[in-house]
Write a structure and sequence with these properties.
The chain has 338 residues and is mostly beta strands. Helix content is 3%, strand content 38%. The strands form 6 sheets. The chain has a 4-stranded antiparallel β-sheet with strand order 1-4-3-2, with no helix packed on it. The protein has a 4-stranded antiparallel β-sheet with strand order 5-6-7-8, with no helix packed on it. A 4-stranded antiparallel β-sheet has the order 9-10-11-12, with no helix packed on it. Strand 17 and strand 18 form a beta hairpin.
């Protein structure tokens, strides 16, 4: 029997779970939808189907896809959970079985050894495939019309490991640029898929320690990898949170030519910090300029003498000089941003 969700800030308000699947045809429209506006907006988000087993983090919930289709001046809506292996096992059991990010040791013995891909972070359409993304594993493919889950997608067996939830599509070539990270070597891999969906490049990038790397940055000429001291060591996976903050490692930012490999990466070292998302970037002469939402440390847990108010992300510009190998960080605004 289902039990109520706990009184948790990540399960209320904007984060509150939506318990139903369905569809609504020909929604009421206030005003007019331009006839020229045709297509579907897909949205993915964390939406747990059952009350969590222990402490909850909003990264833990099951992926739910919402589709808003506009055409001929009309609007239609449909939503479906992604039928991951995790989702199906819990639906059959009628309760949460998997542990959350706060404590990986709290999983039910019935799912021991089952990979908890939640497919809950982002969704993209590339080469005719609608893919629900979760950075800890491969994507799930969905039917673009019905949102029915087709299954795990591995680019015709060419995907080696996980895929970031934030790939980039080159607007000129149609190529899909992405990376994957994990706790076992190689800790970081960079991939390029052609406009027709075939992986045409796959390169291991040498980094000394496995770390959480949520996003990366691209320009027309370069790919930028952000290696923060939020470590994902194998020994972290057996108890508590899998992420550890090790500020003594500092931050390393790697700039690689789009057609280069690990040996071509220029590394910049700076103070410990953390970035979930980058806003914009471009290459200008010998410099790469990137605007990012920068935290003091990874905001997955509190540190001593610290609070959420002192760890708010601010818009920060990085100027990376490839000739002098120097980095300049400049806060561009004092408002919190993400």
């Amino acid at each position: 029997m289902s039990v109520p969700f706990p009184d948790d800030p990540f399960l209320k308000g904007n984060y509150a779970p939506w318990p139903m699947e369905g569809e609504v045809h020909d929604l009421v429209v206030q005003g007019e939808i331009p006839e020229e506006l045709n297509g579907t907006l897909y949205r993915n988000g964390s939406n747990p189907q059952f009350s969590p087993r222990g402490r909850y983090h909003w990264f833990d919930g099951d992926g739910m896809i919402h589709a808003f289709t506009l055409g001929d001046g009309k609007a239609h809506y449909r939503n479906r959970w992604v039928r991951t292996e995790r989702f199906k096992l819990e639906r059959e059991a009628g309760e949460a079985l998997f542990a959350g990010l706060s404590d990986l040791s709290n999983a039910d013995k019935r799912v021991e050894g089952v990979f908890p891909n939640a497919a809950n972070t982002n969704i993209i359409y590339h080469a005719g495939k609608l893919l629900a993304l979760w950075e800890g594993g491969p994507p799930y493919e969905l039917d673009p019309s019905t949102l029915d889950t087709i299954g795990l997608y591995d680019f015709n067996s060419k995907l080696q490991g996980a895929m970031t939830a934030h790939p980039k599509i080159d607007p000129e070539t149609g190529e899909l640029l992405f990376f994957g990270y994990g706790p076992f070597p190689p800790y970081l891999r960079y991939d390029v898929a052609s406009a027709d969906g075939d992986i045409i490049r796959s390169s291991a990038i040498d980094i000394p320690v496995p770390t959480m790397m949520h996003d990366f940055i691209t320009t027309q000429d370069h790919v930028i990898f952000m290696v923060f001291p939020a470590t994902l060591r194998p020994e972290n996976l057996t108890s508590g949170s899998p992420i550890r903050w090790e500020p003594e490692l500092g931050t390393r930012i790697g700039v690689m030519p789009r057609n280069g490999g690990s040996a071509d990466v220029v590394w910049f070292e700076t103070d410990p910090c953390f970035v979930f998302h980058a806003m914009n970037a471009y290459t200008e002469s010998n410099q790469v300029i990137a605007d990012v939402c920068q935290f003091h440390h990874v905001p997955l847990f509190s540190l001593e003498d610290d609070s959420a108010q002192t760890n708010m992300p601010t818009l920060t510009r990085w100027t990376l000089d490839l000739e002098t190998k120097s980095i300049k960080m400049e806060q561009r605004d004092d408002q919190a941003c993400e």
